[in-house]
Amino acid sequence: MAFQPIVDVTTGQPFAYEALVRGADGAGAASVLAQVTPENRYAFDQQCRVAAIEGAVAAGILDGDARLSINFLPNAVYSPLACIQLTLKTAHATGFPTDRLIFEFTENEEMTDTAHVKTIVESYTAMGFGTAIDDFGAGHAGLGLLAKFQTDYIKLDMDLIRGIEQSLPRRMIVEGVVRIAESLRIAVIAEGIETAAEYETLAGLGIRYIQGYLLARPGFRCLPAVTLPEARRVAVG
Q1: CA end-to-end span of the chain
Q2: Which one, 34, 106, 122, 140, has the greatest CB density within 10 A?
Q3: Among 42, 4, 51, residue whose Cα is nearest residue 23
Q4: Measured over all CA atoms, what is the biggest interatomic distance in the chain, rounded to whole angstroms?
Q5: Could you say which DSSP state residue 170 is in?
Q6: What's the pTM value of the predicted model, to 2 decimals?
Q7: Residues 190, 207: contact at Cβ < 8 Å?
Q8: Tens digits of per-residue pLDDT, 36-94?
Q9: 13: closest CA among 24, 4, 5?
Q10: What pLDDT, in 10s, does the model give residues 141-187?
């Protein structure tokens, strides 16, 4: 696993670290995910959870209070209660508090069973985990999905972010999403930030949590340090 911080702009500190799958030699996610099939999807999902928790603990996440965000495959979860047992066992064995776990999912292809995903989200919430929709605004991960169930966080897709300081439509869309999220008590995370102008614009729109190469690139088997543009902290809210 590699880990990339999600930064709280009000403190300049990591709010969470997202676990990103890598090959044993550090190869990118694409080469690993290309090997996932319907037959091995469940085992892959389970192994990723274990590797994320064990890797984060080994990298020192327990030295602070940051959360750990793990991507999961909804289609690999046949039963939320049954499929979470190995995750709970791993967290207990490593001493990682389960209330610091966030599970995020992305669905760039249309979901055929949103009721199943809703059940997963509701079950994870009842267990005390955080939940997040990744790539919000891309594919089918949008307002229609949010209307069916609500997670604790939504992560804005980077296509909405790129060049936002120069795009009135993007700013208006993001501002609208922020207002909707606030009304639903959902926190917004902006991902894929690469420039100081994007950072300043997003923080100015009231987004508290920001992730991207500008702040830190993913660290392979380590928790990378955060670098804020001009060491700035932005008051949000």
Answers
A1: 34
A2: 106
A3: 51
A4: 49
A5: H
A6: 0.91
A7: yes
A8: 888 888 899 999 999 999 999 999 999 999 999 999 888 788 888 888 999 999 999 99
A9: 5
A10: 678 888 989 999 999 999 999 999 999 999 999 999 999 999 999 99
